[in-house]
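User: I'm curious whether this sequence folds into something compact or stays loose and floppy. Could you predict its structure so I can see for myself?
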Amino acid sequence: MSDLLRVVSEAPPAAEEVRPLAERPLDAFMLCSFNVTTPSVEELRAHYAKTASPMVKVIDEVYGTGLLLRNASILALFLDSFQRHFGTPLILNRPMSQADRAALLVLSCIDLRIRLDRRLKTLAGLARLDPELRMVVTLDPKAGTLCRGWSGAPISSCWAESKPPARAGSSSSPSSPST
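Assistant: Here's the prediction. I'll summarize afterward.
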């Protein structure tokens, strides 16, 4: 295991090798992996709504609260909501029952969806703060079409259509350092 850590971990660059922010081609880089869940949160909610299951309230509450309380554990929110709406804590059997697997599927789907929506909300907030920010997001445009509010346009095409003005102290090209 220590060999793996040595391969993955790198020493930070020397101070003289780190360029000032104004000279860097990017202001923000965000890894935004997108794992499509099958079924989606909406499909799960619709499934449970057909049977008037308390799981609908759990889904709605955990999703809404999870977006608002960024530091809250999604697992803790789910377990708390499950106990309140079902009247009993979630206790997994060994081996797991079908109901156990169904509850974990809901948790997994909500968790991934909240994390993605939090990332997209952060990006939108950054863009509102400074429209000149040079951001790169590693979100496949095909996956983005599955997200609410995502235009689906590749980031590169967005830059090509509306190049922001150069920042003070930088060149007109975001990839060239100022002299």
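Summary: The longest strand covers residues 28-30. The first helix runs from residue 2 to 8.
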